[in-house]
Amino acid sequence: MASEAQTGTGTRTTRTAPVTGVVRTRKRMAAAFLLPALVLLGALVVYPIGYSLYRSFYDRSGEFTGFGNYVTLFTDDTILTAIRNNAIWVVLAPTVATALGLIFAVLTERIRWGTAFKLLVFMPMAISMLAAGIVFRLVYEQDPDRGALNAVWVGVHDSFAESSAFPKAHPGQESPLKPGGGGSFVTRTTVEAGVPVALPLLGVPKEQMPEEAAPAKPAAEEPGKVTGTAWQDFTLGKGVGERNAPDASESGYPGLTVEAVKGGEVVESTKAAADGTFTLSKKADGAQLRLPASNFREPYNGVDWLGPDRALPFVGVNFVTLSVILAYVWMWAGFAMVLIAAGLAGIPRELLEAARVDGANEWQVFRRVTVPLLAPLLAVVLVTLMINVLKIFDLVFIIAPGDVRDDANVLALQLYNSFVDRDSGVASAIAVLLFLLVVPVMAFNVRRLRREVRR
Amino acid sequence: MSALGEAVEPRAGGKAEAGDKARPSAASRVAGALSSGLMRVFLLVVGLLWLVPTIGLALSSLREPADISAGGWWQVFTVPSQITFENYAHLLQDETITGSLLSTVAITVPSTLLVVVIGSLAGYAFAWMEFPGRDWWFLGVVGLLVVPVQVALLPVSQLFGRVGIFETTLGVILFHVAFGLPFAIFLLRNFFAEIPRELLEAARLDGAGELRLFLRVVMPLGGPAIASLGIFQFLWVWNDMLVALIFADSKNPPITVALQQQVRHFGDNVSILAPGAFLSMVIPLAVFFAFQRQFVSGVMAGAVK
């Protein structure tokens, strides 16, 4: 009775006994309404926090180890990688997603198809990280013939640095050519104007021959000029034929670069025609002919997006982590955009107009008015994404191939691995670490709401 | 055009800008037209970039394994005859896949309903019932909003093991309900608290008890919030992989877990993974497009989760 009187509000203490009876049944009602929720929350959310804390002080076999598991956390290389990657994730992913969200929200504000754009960018949020992971595994496939990103990348790369047509070509036996260093080949002797040169090579499979390749022809003698033929001195089924002499059943090397070199300097350079013939001027007289290495370079194969290599020389971020973060940004930039767009809609037009009237340009309005007004919202978006990123698991699990999973490791993945590995001590220590990292946000939420609740 | 036309109009004096405050100057209009053109192009490109990965998945799912290993999905633009529904036909005959889709439904639907029911009851209690320490209990629940599920994996798996529901559908459902509740209670309590007091008082005066009040007044009025919550929870559970990976029956796993097992040999399994992923996306995307507004308001309310 007394306790009820104390806990009730001021008005209730003055009420009479029958009302107190009602209060008691109300209390029972309240308990009945709350019971299912409190039981589930207590058993499956609150109790695990306590148990994890307790379990984190015992090793995998159940022996007390004090802070042993926490020491492991910060000494084990694989777990340290997870911690480092998690830090990169928490800094990079929310920042990029929020920045993009802000840009998209501002730009779409006054565009008629802005809603369609927002819908498109927001859509990935509705799908599972597993599906998004599969989507990006396809994007990141290494083979430029299969992975979209490398197809584009190699295309761009090759339009700047030409790829070679004859990666496997090389001189045969008794060839007039010898290795010239760095993958190039040079003639053993110097060439003379008016005497056609033969540059026989081997090793390009028929199906890899450029389409324009025509039957090889001996070059015509031209007084005062150095002429010659570069060709594949081999025919399937017929063999070499007459060694070191072009033959109509053999194929020219169209586009092969031929350089004339005198005293280590290139004096002239040309490319072979479809039938393999080429012509150099008088300047090449007495020079050695060189087939530079660029003819034989292996084709560029793109970037190993899911590889363990460092993405940038100075930053310890590897490609695979960066690639998974990009997939995350694809999923969550829409979230930031939608929240920020809602915030933008709430900014009073007059404030922006006033700034424009004062002569501010759009960038200044954005920088000096919009962003400061949105700052609290931006903070909420950032913090929400940080909490989300802290426990990132599915995307890494799906996108990082098995052999680089340790390089892409994150805390939630490590926790799962330790769990599967039956290392309950380390798993619990990671759980406690993850929990401690969200405690500040928890406290912030509670404090913010405490004011609202006490209406 | 019109912007340019106005831009060449002669203006009186160099101080036109300061004098005509309401309208931007000619130069800034030209700049504005230019930059809005650039802006549109930029957004168009970004939109395309955002769409391409999904198109890649969709087109990959429509190609035979031999075509997939021979070249990228963009080949269907030059060789449209590559398109086939074979992969889907195979997948829908595969009992592991169809079974896993059913399993996903069997987990998602009860989880969603239970969160709505249990969350509404608690939300109502926190909003309108009097009991000691009410606000403190509510703040405690709010504190649980951000607890990562990872914290509970090990303890709950042991707990479920002892009770005998580890690796069962019931276990997965209970786990999802528990971790959905803080958000559900938070959202619904705040929404219910906005219901005008007079409505409730009037019903009370008519002799309605708490249960009647809850069912006849609060639940119907809570429609929008309940819809947001339901959609949010539905998508969260449907898309979950981690919880199912640990708690689901490994002989009858949901679609995410079933597909995950094929990822190990990704290159060889694209003809299963691409259509499988697409099938798993169909329902969430349908829900998303049908209930965008509710989804967005759920996301906004859940910005703390």
UniProtKB/TrEMBL annotation, chain B:
Organism: Streptomyces cavernicola
PROSITE patterns: ABC_TM1
Primary localization class, coarse: membrane
Name of the protein described by the UniProt record: Carbohydrate ABC transporter permease
Subcellular locations according to the entry: Cell membrane
Membrane topology: Multi-pass membrane protein
InterPro entries with a match to the protein in the record: MetI-like, MetI-like_sf
PANTHER family: ABC TRANSPORTER PERMEASE PROTEIN MG189-RELATED-RELATED, OSMOPROTECTIVE COMPOUNDS UPTAKE PERMEASE PROTEIN GGTD
Gene3D superfamilies the record matches: MetI-like
Location of region: Disordered: 1-20
